[in-house]
Every structure is written in C-alpha cells, then in structure tokens.
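Key idea: predict the complex, not the pieces.
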Amino acid sequence: MGEMKRIGVITSGGDCGGLNAVIKGAAQMALRNGIEIVIIPNGYAGLYNLIQFKELVTLTPQRVDFIDSNLAGSEAGHSRVKIKKIKDEQKYQRIKQGLEKFQIDGLVISGGDDTGSVMVDLASHGIACVQAPKTMDLDLQPYSVGGDSTINRISQFVVDLKTTGKTHNRIIVVEVFGRYAGHTAFRGGLGADADCILIPEVPVDMDIVYEHMKKVYMGRIEKSDVKSGTYTIVVAEGLKDINGKGIYDESAGLDTFGHKKLAGAGKYVCQQVEKRMKQDAELRQFMETTGMFVQDLYEIPEIRDVRPGHLVRCGQTSAFDVSFGREAGAAAVILLKQGLSGVTVVDVKGHQVRYMKTQDAIVPRYVDLSVVEFYESLGVCFGRSSKQDFKAECVEITEIVDRHY
Ligand code: F6P
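Result:
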C-alpha cells in the first residue's frame, strides 16, 4: 500500500451517538500528520457513486472546528447499501475509479457488522480501509461507539415513563432497538431499575413474567399509602418466545441491507400479560381491595406498550462515546498510515493502538448469561425461572483486560 496523502471518511449503517466524534478524531489525526481528509457522503451509496461527484468536502481545520462531537447522527450522512448486492458487475472498478478521481488513498469507515462485512469485501479488492467500530446494538466483539449513548437514553426514557406509570397504576412495556442482541435492553433496563428485562438471549416464559409482575406490582400498590405503583418491563426488539422463535411482525418488511425490520415484541408482551390478567381471580380481588375496581370500566390494571424507536439513537452523544469516538477515528488514521487494511480499531491503550481483523471483530457478541444470572440474584426478572442461588467465586486480578459492556 502506498503513502497516505488523502483519506476519505465514510459513516454507514444505522446512525447513533459518537459518529461526529469519529469524524472529528479522524480529521484531527490526519491534519496532524499532514494528510488531507475528505467526506464521502451517504455511506456506501456515496462510495459507489463517487465517480459522479464534482467535489467533496475537505475537512480543513476551520471545517473540523464546526463539527460538534456531542451531536448524534453523522455530518457525513448514511445509507444501508451493501456493495455486494449492487447488480453492476463493474462496481469495484467504478469505486476504484471514484477513489482515483479524488486521489483518495485509504478509507476510514465507521459502522457495525454489515458495514464491516462490506469493508472486508472492499479490502479484498485492494481498497485500503480501516473500521472505526460503531453500532448502538453493541453486537461487535470490541466496544462500538453509540452503545453508551443509546443505553443512557433508554435508561432516561424508562425512568421518565415511571411517572406516568405510577400515576395511572399502569404496567409499562418499553420495546427498544438492538436487533438480535439484548445489550441495549439489558443495560438500559438495569440503568433504569426496571423490574423485568426481556432479551433475545433468554426465550421468554410469559407465565414467569406474569407471576413476577403480580407479586411486585400488587406488593407496591398495597404498601403505598396513596395506593400507587407501576411495573416496568424493558423488551428487546429481537425477543424470542418460549420455543425460541422470534416475535416479530412479518409484515414490517426488509431494510436495504436485506434484514427484517423488527417490531412487535412489546405488543406481544402486552397481549400475553393482559390475557393472563383477565383470567386471574386474585388480581380482580386485589383491584377490589385497593379501591381501583369499577365494574365494566376498570376491572384489570392497564398496560401500555411504548416504542421509543429512533429516539434511542439520536440527540446527544454521551461523554463516553465522544471520547471513544474521537479515539476510534484518530486510531483508524494511524492504522491506515501504518499500511494496515481490513482491520478494526479496538481501543487505544497508552501508546498502543489495538486492533483486530474486521472479519473477527464482526462476529456477533451476545449478552453474557452469567451476568444475567447475577442480576437475577438481585431480583430482576428475565422471563425464566432463576437459578436458586448464584455462587460467586472471588478472584484477585492484577491487570484489567476487558472493560466494555
Ligand atoms: O442496527 C441499528 C438499529 O438501530 C437496530 O437496532 C434497529 O433494528 C435498526 O437499526 C433500525 O433501522 P432503521 O434506522 O433502518 O429503521
């Protein structure tokens, strides 16, 4: 690979917090090394169509100063386009011509598993590129920018929803993005002190959810001097039923990467809880003794399904993601300058930029079930019968090896 004189920066996949920090970090490191850096707009769609562009935005020191690292979303724009899926047989040739036209020697590409798989493809076609890991889903092997911001937002939404839940004595179900991994629901739910957290890693037994709900919800209201209480369930969109089958509305269709759009898990949980409430004589008696029962109008507690949707990944970036994002962007430039390609930044430790092969970095990572067990021992319901007693082994360590979620 030749010398890096000009680098292009691409952000791709679903947007989230920290992307502008990646762009800023990459630009600052490039400028420091006398490398020009330009924005290739709208993800891989822009890369494919680069040949048609008349000019690109150059990130001069003045332009970089206008990039607000704290804002989520990306100044570079996004698309969900998989190069492999483009029918044009000359697509790689066309991309190379676009890169030659603008004399771009290498690419910093920020994205998740799909973006990474395209990157592996590009690298194998001789295009120099390094991935700055990004996905709010947190399902890559290394930490990915966007996860912390999303988790903080989920926590805040769930905490806020408790005021309305408590006022109406409602059960609140919050369905959150995260695809087939439960990291965002898990950590977002824990951050909000949710009563029940349902993740794809644990096929849900609705009888167990219902029993836990009844005990906690009824206990709360009975103990309250004003007879007020709520019960909060955070549900990952990729939830599976007791038989391990995904619970999604099949009519939602596909995105441009070709993935199922996930929706319906929260609705399913509401329907399952409501069905059980209607058949429960003990619950009816509870409604009567707490003075809530009104014949035909209010015989069972109300339950609401809330889907914050894209709100979990927009707005402000967390302080952690601003710093990690700048680090990842800057580190990607260092790796490119070293002649590396097809690799993903893991982190910066002192004077070391740590990286791994992108094909290894995009292997999906799920919630660790031993951590689930730990929180079960603290009383959180995960929709399965919890092990009776969590046994912990105490181990002294001398080095911190792994810090991510
Ligand atoms: O992969 C990130 C993500 O936010 C998922 O958690 C979610 O399923 C999906 O993107 C939503 O995609 P879109 O922005 O295309 O609606």
